[in-house]
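W.,

You were right to be curious about this one. When I first looked at the sequence I had no strong expectations either way, so I just let the prediction run and decided to look at it fresh. Below is the sequence, 74 residues in total, followed by the output.
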Amino acid sequence: MTLEDWGKNVSHHLQFIEAGASMAARHAAALPIRPGFETLAEDELQKARETLQDALTKVIIAQNTYQAKPLETA
């Protein structure tokens, strides 16, 4: 995937993920206690973490690919 394609097809999703992560962090901080059993929210946070780790790996690969390209010569 080119960086241009990444910007068109991925970046807006990352912005929504960022907003969702901020909301999740605020609500997690607001909890006075947590239940003694695994909740759906906890499961979804784990899924989000795995998805974000995969996305970060792809970003790193894209950056490395970009940096490996030869520089433009005038």
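Here's what jumped out at me. The first helix runs from residue 3 to 9. And, maybe more interesting for your project: The radius of gyration is 18 Å.

Coffee later to discuss?

I.
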